[in-house]
């Protein structure tokens, strides 16, 4: 039987989202030091342009004629037109900016961008940033979740000639990819800007962020590169609104539950409590995730010892179904979540990666599956999902 305490009521609660500060520094007259790992910087604040007033326009006095034929002048009051007040955000450029690896870049104007990681693709789509070259599949392009089609589709990411032909100023990828064959190929064609990476499978590299802070910081970094810092703050506000809505469904039972988020592969690859989705659950009153988050498979004995209250199986890593797991796994029916009917099979892998949009998607599916009476529809096809229009973000 499901835990009646956890589903007994929907409580309203406050949620304070944590967002990382933008790592943008004002451009100096000196050449930047590429080894500088300082990521602290100050964004230029928006200023308000003074209202403008057009010159007073006076209309000539019309003339009327009396019955006796004498001309009589009538005066019309002068009119003054005042232009509306507009807020003008100054450009961040010239810009000096530091990436997740501590590399410092200086640009006089916004660079043309390429994406070598889906975190870049999804973040660009949330911000509305055009991408000139991308690893996104052609069938995924021109959709709300993955954004408009790039000028160039990169098919072989390890081919430096493809990246060179794309002719972009900067290619963005995950810091987890440092030293990879893909990074080595890109470096032969363009500078690489490393973005922050979630810690679902390994600790964040030194100096890099993890969890959902990585996603919000990437929004600010890419917003700065595109000279669109306000767009980044708007997207972050949507994520914070979605998190606040998720918190409204917390109960005393959900606060103490344990949750296992596993992939669709044999064994138990749980994402761990420091991953973005698990941090979101914990901070909104939906329990604690089991697992190490170090990319290690838990064996049957270790998973049975964890004995989670809730099991969420995503599509990550394979195509093993819950039914197949039940038929082949000798400890499956001994688990508390299985015995209480608290096993949920999802249709996506965004519990593991790569953006605030992906987190909103998974949070909406979580509510749809675990709180079926809440009236929150499932998020549907990932490519067609618009995070800003999610009922979690819109309230």
Kindly describe this structure.
With 395 residues, this protein is α/β, with parallel strands linked by helices. It has twelve helices and 16 strands. It has helices at 118-127, 160-166, 181-187, 211-225, 229-247, 252-256, 276-283, 300-306, 322-328, 336-339, 356-370, 391-394; strands spanning 24-26, 47-48, 63-65, 71-73, 87-88, 95-98, 104-107, 113-115, 133-134, 152-153, 170-174, 192-195, 258-262, 288-289, 310-313, 343-345. The strands form five sheets. The chain has a five-stranded parallel β-sheet with strand order 10-9-8-11-12, sandwiched between helices. Strands 14-13-15-16 form a four-stranded parallel β-sheet. Helix 1 crosses helix 4, helix 2 (160-166) packs across helix 3 (181-187) and helix 4 crosses helix 7. The model is unreliable at 1-78 (pLDDT under 50).
Cα Rg: 27 Å
Oligomer: single chain
Number of strands: 16
List the uncertain runs: 1-78
Task: Write down the overall mean pLDDT.
Answer: 81
Strand content: 5-15%
Q: Which structural class do the helices and strands define?
A: alpha/beta
Range of helix content: 25-40%
| C-alpha termini separation | 31 Å
The geometry reads as globular
Main beta-sheet strand count, sense and barrel state: 5 strands, parallel
Query: Order of strands side by side in the largest beta sheet?
Result: 10-9-8-11-12
Order of helices and strands: EEEEEEEEHEEHEHEHHHEHEHEHHEHH
In DSSP terms (H or I, runs of 4 or more residues), the helix count works out at 12
């Amino acid at each position: 039987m499901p835990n009646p305490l956890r589903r007994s009521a929907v409580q309203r609660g406050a949620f304070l989202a944590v967002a990382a500060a933008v790592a943008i520094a004002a451009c100096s007259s000196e050449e930047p030091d590429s080894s500088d790992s300082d990521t602290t910087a100050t964004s230029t604040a928006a200023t308000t342009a003074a209202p403008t007033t057009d010159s007073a326009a006076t209309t000539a006095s019309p003339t009327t004629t009396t019955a006796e034929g004498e001309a009589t002048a009538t005066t019309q009051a002068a009119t003054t037109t005042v232009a509306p007040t507009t807020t003008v955000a100054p450009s961040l450029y010239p810009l000096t900016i530091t990436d997740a690896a501590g590399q410092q870049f200086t640009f006089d104007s916004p660079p043309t961008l390429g994406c070598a990681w889906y975190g870049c693709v999804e973040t660009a789509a949330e911000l509305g940033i055009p991408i000139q070259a991308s690893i996104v599949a052609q069938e995924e392009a021109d959709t709300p979740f993955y954004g408009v089609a790039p000028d160039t589709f990169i098919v072989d990411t390890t081919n430096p000639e493809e990246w060179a032909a794309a002719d972009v100023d900067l290619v963005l990828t995950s810091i987890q990819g440092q030293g990879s064959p893909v990074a080595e190929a890109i470096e032969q064609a363009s500078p690489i800007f490393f973005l922050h990476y979630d810690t679902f499978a390994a600790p964040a590299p030194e100096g890099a962020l993890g969890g959902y802070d990585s996603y919000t910081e990437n929004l600010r970094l890419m917003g700065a590169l595109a000279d669109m810092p306000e767009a980044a703050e708007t997207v972050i506000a949507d994520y914070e609104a979605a998190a606040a809505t998720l918190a409204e469904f917390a109960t005393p039972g959900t606060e103490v539950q344990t949750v296992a988020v596993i992939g669709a592969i044999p064994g138990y690859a749980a994402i761990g409590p420091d991953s973005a989705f698990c941090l979101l659950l914990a901070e909104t009153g939906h329990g604690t995730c089991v697992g190490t988050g170090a990319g290690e498979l838990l064996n049957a004995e270790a998973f049975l010892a964890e004995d989670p209250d809730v099991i969420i199986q995503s599509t990550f890593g394979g195509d093993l179904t819950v039914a197949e797991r039940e038929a082949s796994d000798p400890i499956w029916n001994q688990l508390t979540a299985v015995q209480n009917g608290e096993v949920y099979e999802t249709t996506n892998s965004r519990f593991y990666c790569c953006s605030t949009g992906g987190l909103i998607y998974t949070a909406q599916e979580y509510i749809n599956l675990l709180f079926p009476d809440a009236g929150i529809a499932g998020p549907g096809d990932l490519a067609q999902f618009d995070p800003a229009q999610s009922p979690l973000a819109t309230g």
